[in-house]
Amino acid sequence: MLMRTDPFRELDRFAQQVFGTPAPGTWSKPAAIPLDAYRAGDEFVVCFDLPGVAPDAIELDVEGNVLTVQAERRPAPSGDDVRMQVSERPLGVFSRRLFLGDTLDTDHIAANYDAGVLTLRIPIAEKAKPRRIEITGAATDRKEIQA
Question: How many of the other CB atoms lie within 10 Å of CB of 27?
Answer without folding.
Answer: 5
